[in-house]
Amino acid sequence: MVDRGASALSLPDDWPAHPDPILALNRMGSFDWDLDTGLFHMDAQAHEVFDLRPDEYDDNPVNLAVRVPTAEAHRLDALVAQAIKDGSENYGTYFRIRCRDGTLRWTHTQGYIRRDESGRPRRIVGIVRDATQEMGELEVRREQAAQDEAQRRQTNVVQLTTAALAHARTVQDVIDVLKDTHGLTHLGATSLVMGLVEAGRIRLIAEGPAGSFVPGTDVTRIDEPYPMSEAVRTLSPRFIESPEEFADRYPILWPHITGLNITSAAYLPLIAEARPIGAMGLLYSDRYGFTPEDRNVLIALGSSIAQSLQRAMLYEQEKDLATGLQQAMLPRTIPSVPGADVAVRYRAASAEGALGRDIGGDWYDLIPLPGGRVGAVIGDVQGHDTHAAAVMGQLRIVLRAYAAEGHTPATVMARASVFLHELDTDRFATCLYAEADLATGVVQVVRAGHIDPLVRRADGSCRRVTVDGGLPLGLSAEFGQLDYPVATLELDPGGTLLLCTDGLVEEPGADLDDGMRTLTRLIAMGPADVWELADRLIDVAEERAGDDDVALLLLRRRDQDAPQSGSRLRQHVAPGDPEALTQARHMIRTAVGTWGARERSDEIELVADELITNALMHTEGAAIVTLRVLTGSDRRMRVEVEDSSSALPRRREAGESGVSGRGLLLVDLLSDVWGVEARGGGKCVWCEFVVPERP
Fold this sequence. Notes:
The protein is an alpha+beta fold. The protein has 18 helices and 26 strands.
C-alpha cells in the first residue's frame, strides 16, 4: 500500500515560523537588557512601540527618557529592582509612553530575568507591546462595571425603601422611612421636601435638614412658580442639573436655599390613581446632572412613594373615622358621683397593618341611680370594626335605660341579652354590671361571660372576686338561658372596685388566671389614687402593645363615718318574676349581715319577704323594697315596701286550715315597730328592728 499521509499534508515552506514574524504580527517588540554593561537592545518592532527611529536610539536606556515620563520610569525601575531583589524569574506591568505627537499611549512589558549558576542576575529578555486598545477596552469595562454597580446600589435602595414603605401605616411613617439613614440618603440627597395637595394648594409636611425651611412655603398654590408646584401642575418630574439652572428657573426660591450649597435637584410628582396627591423634592450638594438611569430610578421611586403615601392617607382617614365613631359611642363625660372617686380609661388595639383595628366594641359606663346608688358597666362586643362599635353603642344605651328604670341587676342583664339577640346581628357581647350603694358599701354584681371584678382594700391588698356568671349577651337569649346569678360584696370606705376588659389581662401564650394574678399584684403595688392607678394600668397595656382593646373603670368609695339616717339599699321587684324576689331576699340577708345585724337577719328577712309577697299578691304593680340603717338614741334597721295601691293592709284571723291571714301578725310579732304611710297614689308599709351598734 502507498503511504499517503505525508503527501496529503501540505505544509508552508517557512514552517515552523520564526519568533520574529510572530511577534511582529502581534505588534510586539523584543528587548535584551545586559545588566553588566547596562545596554538595552531593542528590535525594530520595539522601536515602533516606543515611536522611535533607529537613528534615535543607540541601546542606551537613558535615551528612552524622551518617551517614558519620569514618574513612569521611576515606577518601572522600582518594579524591576524589586523583582531582582525578590529572586523572581519574571515581571510584567503596564506603563504609559509619550508619542512623538505628544499623546500618551499605554504599553505593556514582560521580562524574564536570567541568572548565572550563583543566582546573580545577568540579563533580562522580554517583550513590549502597544496596549492602548486593550487598556481602552478595560477602561470601558471598568466604567460599565461602575455604572452597573451604581445602578445596582440605586436599585437596591429603591427595593429597600419600597420594602420599608410596605410597613408604613401613617404619613409620618412614610416620612420617617424616607429620612432614615437606610432610605433616600443612600442616593446622595442632602435635603428632602415633601408636600401634599389639599384644596388646590400644596401643604408642606416634611423638610430637612433642620434650618432649611423657606419662610412662606408651608402652604403654596399650585400655580405659583415653585418646582413642587410645577411638578404637580404638569404631572412630570423636574430635574435641575446645576446651581445656575436652579437660579434661572426658580429665582423666587433660589435665594433662600443658597446656604445649603445645592448643586442639583430632582422634584417628583406623587401620582396615585392618575391624580397628583403631592410632590417630593430631593436636593443634592455633591452632584451635577442626572443620567437617564438616575432619572428612571428616581421616577420609579416616586411611584412607590406615592402608592405608600396614598395608603397611609387612606389609613389615617379611616382611623379618624373610627376614632370619631368610638368616641361618639363611649360616654362623653363621666358624671360626678357623691361619695365616690371614678376613673375611666380606654386604649384602642394596635394591630399592625390592619385598617379598622383601632376601633372595637369595648366600653364602660357609669349610671347614677336613685337613693345614692350608682351602676358601673364594663363590656366587650365581639369584633374590631365599625359594626362592633355600633352594636356597642346600642347596648350601652339600652343597659343605661334598663338600669335607670329601676330593674334589678339580673333583669338589666337579661333584657340586654334579649335586645342584642333581637338586633339581628351575629355579634355577642360579654358584660359585667355592678350596682353599688355608696352609703352602705353593698355592691350587687352580675356577669355575662365577662372576667371577674377585682377589689382593692384601703390597706392596698387586692383580691379577685369570683362571680357566678351566665352566658354572654345575645347567646343567653338564643339558648333561652337568661338566669344571671347576683353576687353581693361589701366595698369598705377607701376600697376600690376595678372593672376591666380582657385586653388588660390576656397576654399571648399566657393563661387567663395567670394574667389575673399578675394584674392583682400590679394593682396592689400601684398608687392609692384611682386616677394615678388608672394611668399606671393603661401604661402597662401600652407597653404590652396587645392586639385587643382595653376598657377600664375604677370606682373608689370615699372614707366616711358609719351609715347615717337615710342611707339605704333599694331593689325593684317586678310581679311575676320569682327570680327578682329571690334576689331581694339575698340582698337583704347579705346587707343585714354586712351592717352588723346578723343575729336578727332571719327575722328581718322573714318580715321583708312577707311584706313583698303581700304587695305582689294584693296589688297589680311592682314592689320596691328599701333597707335602711337609722341612727339616733339607738341603732335600727328599717325595711320599707312600696306599692301602687292605696288600699291599706288589715289584720285577718286565720282559721285552723287557713293558709293566709297571718302576715301582719308575723310583722307585729317580729318587728319592734311597724306602720303604713301614704306615698302619692300608693302606700309604703314599713317596719323597724333595733340592732346593736356596729363595732
